[in-house]
């Protein structure tokens, strides 16, 4: 872990009172940004590839103002968190255990767990394998693992969209190509897959600082290597926690139909879609998504009084 490089909270100007901390979650130490009242219900925000804790800066103010204690970690292998060398250190079981360890280390019994992209995969897995730790689940542009696995096996359109996963299986090649042109390929991928202006030059420079941490990029790619090698299947398929699926319909990487299919694996769920948003919906619609999150968290306390439809889904 590097303390002299990477993107820390101190390097970012935000109007929110927060603190960057290193937290021992068990096997690894994670860098986290924490904000909000310490006695508030805990919200854990999980970023995806190729981001870091910075992905959630727009959410610190609205969530803390709503009374929630918010923690945003760099997931293992990213930015300032530990970078285990072995590929199997990035098995989805290990990633979910990090979330449980983080909740425990912060002195809480459970949390509202929110994830985008790979963070969504970790959020789903945590809810499925550690249900006692998850008060509510939110997955953004990442389907239920059973749905995703089925489409990767049988859906040629989704297989084509996921071609890059096979590229990441090549040994050393992704790590050698990524830094060329000061991470130009990675920057272009973010720009081209999002709405114009979604990622500002400042945003990209801050992500670049995280990507250049020694061993970080290889560790980020190891998430993809680990999932292909292990092909994990969840022990349980139904999520019992109140579940919100947020989806930008113009996602270049994932088929939209998987969003609604994911609801069938949830005891209590609803779907919030954004017609003009892409895979990066949390950046493109921060105000609306934050409001939806607060409503979802608040609603989780009132779940027994809700009246879901016959399928167990609540429209939003």
Automatic annotation (TrEMBL):
Gene3D superfamilies: alpha/beta hydrolase. InterPro entries: AB_hydrolase_1, AB_hydrolase_fold, Epox_hydrolase-like. It holds the Pfam family Abhydrolase_1. Residues 42-286 form the AB hydrolase-1 domain. The keyword Transcription regulation does not apply. It comes from the Archaea. The keyword Hydrolase applies. Keywords: Hydrolase. SUPFAM superfamilies: alpha/beta-Hydrolases (SSF53474). One of its GO terms (molecular function) is hydrolase activity. This is Pimeloyl-ACP methyl ester carboxylesterase. It comes from Haloferax larsenii.
């Amino acid at each position: 872990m590097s303390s002299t490089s990477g993107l820390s909270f101190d390097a970012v100007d935000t109007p929110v009172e927060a603190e960057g901390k290193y937290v021992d979650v068990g096997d690894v130490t994670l860098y986290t940004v924490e904000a909000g009242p310490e006695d508030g219900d805990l919200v854990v925000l999980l970023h995806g590839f190729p981001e870091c804790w910075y992905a959630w800066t727009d959410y610190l103010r609205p969530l803390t103002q709503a009374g929630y204690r918010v923690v945003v970690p760099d997931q293992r292998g990213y930015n300032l968190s530990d970078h285990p060398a072995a590929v199997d250190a990035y098995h989805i079981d290990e990633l979910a255990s990090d979330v449980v360890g983080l909740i425990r280390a912060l002195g809480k019994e459970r949390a509202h767990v929110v994830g985008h992209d790979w963070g969504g995969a970790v959020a789903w897995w945590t809810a499925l394998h550690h249900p006692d730790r998850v008060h509510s689940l939110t997955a953004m542009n990442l389907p239920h693992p059973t749905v995703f696995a089925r489409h990767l096996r049988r859906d040629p359109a989704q297989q084509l969209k996921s071609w890059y996963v096979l590229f990441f299986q090549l040994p050393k090649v992704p790590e050698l190509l990524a830094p060329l042109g000061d991470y130009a390929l990675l920057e272009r991928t973010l720009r081209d897959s999002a709405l114009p202006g979604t990622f500002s030059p400042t945003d990209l420079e801050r992500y670049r600082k995280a990507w250049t941490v020694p061993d970080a990029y290889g560790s980020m790619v190891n998430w993809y290597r680990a999932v292909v090698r292990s092909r994990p299947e969840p022990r349980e398929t139904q999520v019992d926690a109140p579940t919100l699926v947020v989806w930008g319909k113009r996602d270049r990487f994932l088929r939209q139909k998987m969003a609604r299919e994911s609801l069938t694996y949830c005891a209590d769920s609803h779907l919030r879609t954004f017609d003009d948003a892409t895979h990066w919906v949390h950046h493109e619609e921060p105000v609306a998504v934050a409001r939806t999150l607060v409503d979802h968290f608040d609603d989780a306390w009132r779940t027994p009084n809700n009246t879901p439809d016959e399928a167990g889904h609540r429209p939003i």
